[in-house]
């Protein structure tokens, strides 16, 4: 899962000017004198009535997404949020604020760069791979994607949306599968968190990724099997950029909702979501620890996200989300010490599971994915629990293999595509485009005969597990889909989900069920209890996804639970 878990950053005020599909960001997408809010209308309220209420509260509508009753609003009134919340036509207003820039390295996903790796990569070439770096992709072997592609490598008509920080379409492994026509950027740069804008409009061109996370996710889903670099789970499907995350790794409500609405309207088949919506790790209806304004803001997030996820699902989108990297049972969450993660200092928030949600993974119709390491053990960082888990998948685990020579090696993680620019910013690739000494085991460079070069690096996280599942979902649609409409092709999300679960490789809870990670250097807070049966449990859900079984086993009619 992207980010972040950043605390202690210096607070600064920021206003956003966000847009909906087809509009460009205004030139002043950095700081302005007004404040910006995402406002959500009550159920059954018309757009005209909602806009009238917004104006009466002192706001100006900048953009609107009528399909889910969402409005981007600016206001100079200090009391706008409270006035909007008091309006009968509105659920509430979530102000867009920001704090400093994200740390250079993510403490979970880039753990190998924050700690000294103790050995070499553990990839082993078995001579059966298509692309040069595939020998390092133990995840493809675990889910039998290398066998699945012999039966079904994916169909170009099948579209997978990568709702993330962007997608580097210049990467030679991604360029053949990139869908320019459907790709959009919904998240203009915000100077306060992303740094200076790369373009005057602050709306980065489609096909770029200044964060890196989205490009890594995309490679696992659908890097081309072209004899170059590495290949993805579904190497022939089409990849669609849905930039809903900032370069810095923050995911705000308005871009995420608009990306989901676009996915539904555009007929995308699958959308991968490896993030949570900022600033609240958990959005609660009325948490006593929160102020009335914060409670109203969270109710707006809950309403908007549920509407957006339902909208996309009802339009035929299979939704896949990462469970998160907070090493907790999502059915029994710990006190939240990380929220809000921008706009104000975080404070302790006891979480009531019945009235709090982690979005998008705890939203309707989302397939929740936990992460395992090469050994098949649940990664120490991965969230879990029978309430939200659906399946497990390779997410990487740097500390896997305790007691062996693979312990704390880069090869325990997930290798995938990555933008050269971001690697240069992180210091592992020099100005000339060469891998810096000392990073030979974590960063790889491959060049085509025509001189085009692609870069690859290791990350770990449930963010890396989720795209394995999205890739398998895309293979299911490719194999079992049918023509829809005049030019469409797809498969009902409920059928995709049921087939994904039915064909997953069952994985029993470990013994003892209470797993300790003290050998790997973790505190007792990381201890995790695996509840459930062989068929379904809190660590593995219905099992580890199996691409080969998914394309070989006949599709069965959907059975309502």
What's the gyration radius in Å?
22 Å
Tally of alpha and pi helices? 13
Helix content estimate: 10-25%
Number-wise, the strands total 22
Q: How far is the N terminus from the C terminus?
A: 29 Å
| Portion in strands | 15-25%
Give the overall form. Answer: globular
| Secondary structural class | alpha/beta
Assembly state (oligomeric): single chain
Strand order of the largest sheet: 8-9-7-10-12-14-15
Sketch the major β-sheet.
Answer: 7 strands, parallel
Poorly predicted runs: 3-32, 122-127
Mean pLDDT: 90
Please give a structural write-up:
With 561 residues, the chain is an alpha/beta fold. α7 packs parallel to α11 (462-480), α8 (253-266) runs parallel beside α9 (292-314) and α11 crosses α12 (493-503). It contains 13 helices and 22 strands. A hairpin with a 3-residue loop joins β19 and β20 (488-490). The strands form seven sheets. It has a seven-stranded parallel β-sheet, sandwiched between helices. Strands 3-4-2-5 form a four-stranded antiparallel β-sheet, sandwiched between helices. Strands 16-18-17 form a three-stranded antiparallel β-sheet.
